Inverse folding.
């Protein structure tokens, strides 16, 4: 008669004649001779352990290569980071990309220009409105289309609201990268209201397909501008002060961020960094100022910059940019005129004249650029997408050398990559 032990392993119950001991002895006598004993890998004798300790004291590197990702949530997507370590110290890292590659640039070569807009949304899926704006601006510049003033101002409003969403989401995920879970919940709470506003105006919460070549698909619904103003009041009065209290009064956050992942100004410029990555190193470069577009020429706003270029500066720049986005939206609301949202002289057949052009916008991650080559047809001959996440990711190795493994995760978080636009 058989029974079952507490671990779920079958055993022999009393009363079977031989008992458990007899059964085990009988099976042992039938078993083949045991193989010679081998020491488990990674287990050292006392003499070997002492030798390893002496090498460590003498500065001898015990290099270990490990993989972070591509499935690990702290890589912010399907990114594999090959890290070389000496204990907990990072000797070097190599990002291995391509797990989310969708062949975007090649696919759009066979499409007409209006078809590209919703597909562009998928590149930076957290800030998709900037992708739409970039494609529309390229075609509009090639065709010489002038937008109505209401369309320009509304585009700027939606872009800054999307920047606010992106930075709020980054705020929550970076806090979670360094061990704080509460800010992530606060960020998602505040992001939902902004998503509600997007849904009411565009019909979607994340991938909008709202911008059109020549303007917008539709105007905002009645009451939408009033609700947007209420959201801005709430964000300034309650959400933003909570963000400051949650992080900047937290000693662990300061200790984990200050002086970690330093990128000097010269290095950031040499690598072609843009956005908060560059501004945190002390370079006040912003496409909205360098090459104004939309309603930005008529808006007053500050460009936050850092001093040391460390994790704390990159966090501070993004947090301050949320406040500046609110400031820009308020100015746009005060200058928003009545009128149409689609240029009346937009041609039905869109054929960009033969030639090439480069346009850019300031996305939450930096300079988002598009090089368009046209042969005069209904679609592009070539589209080259300059993704700021792709360019900024190059700095991961520089900023993490000599830091600890936990700081590698934090450093990656302050780059604020979106793998959709890294791989495209």
């Amino acid at each position: 008669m058989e029974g079952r032990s507490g671990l779920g392993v079958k055993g022999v119950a009393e009363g079977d004649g031989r008992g458990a001991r007899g059964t085990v002895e009988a099976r042992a006598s039938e078993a083949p001779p045991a193989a010679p004993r081998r020491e488990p890998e990674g287990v050292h004798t006392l003499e070997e352990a002492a030798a390893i300790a002496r090498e460590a004291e003498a500065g001898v590197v015990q290099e270990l290569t490990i993989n972070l990702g591509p499935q690990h949530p702290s890589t912010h997507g399907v990114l594999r980071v090959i890290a070389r370590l000496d204990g907990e110290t990072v000797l070097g890292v190599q990002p291995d990309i391509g797990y989310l590659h969708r062949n975007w640039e090649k696919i759009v070569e066979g499409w007409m220009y209006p078809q590209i807009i919703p597909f562009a949304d998928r590149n930076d899926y957290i800030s998709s409105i900037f992708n739409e704006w970039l494609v529309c601006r390229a075609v509009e510049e090639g065709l010489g289309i002038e937008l109505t003033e209401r369309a320009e101002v509304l585009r700027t409003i939606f872009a800054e609201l999307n920047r606010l969403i992106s930075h709020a989401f980054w705020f929550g995920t970076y806090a979670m990268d360094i061990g704080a879970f509460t800010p992530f919940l606060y960020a998602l709470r505040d992001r939902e209201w902004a998503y509600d506003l997007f849904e009411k105006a565009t019909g979607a919460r994340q991938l909008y397909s709202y911008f059109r070549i020549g303007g917008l698909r539709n105007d905002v619904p009645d009451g939408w501008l009033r609700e947007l103003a209420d959201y801005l009041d709430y964000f300034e009065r309650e959400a933003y002060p909570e963000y400051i209290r949650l992080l900047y009064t937290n000693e662990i956050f300061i200790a984990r961020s200050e002086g970690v992942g330093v990128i000097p100004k010269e290095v950031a410029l040499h690598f072609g960094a843009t956005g908060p990555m560059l501004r945190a190193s002390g370079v006040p470069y912003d496409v909205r100022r360098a090459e104004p577009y939309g309603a930005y020429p008529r808006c007053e706003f500050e460009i936050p910059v850092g001093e040391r270029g460390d994790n704390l500066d990159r966090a501070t720049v993004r947090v301050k940019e949320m406040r500046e986005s609110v400031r820009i939206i308020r100015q746009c609301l005060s200058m928003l005129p009545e009128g149409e949202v689609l240029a009346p002289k937009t041609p039905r057949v869109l054929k960009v004249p033969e030639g090439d052009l480069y346009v850019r916008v300031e996305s939450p991650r930096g300079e988002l650029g598009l090089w368009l080559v046209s042969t005069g047809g209904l679609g592009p001959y070539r589209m080259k997408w300059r993704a700021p996440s792709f360019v900024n990711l190059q700095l991961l190795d520089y900023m993490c050398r000599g830091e600890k493994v936990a700081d590698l995760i934090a450093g990656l978080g302050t780059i604020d990559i979106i793998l959709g636009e890294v791989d495209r």
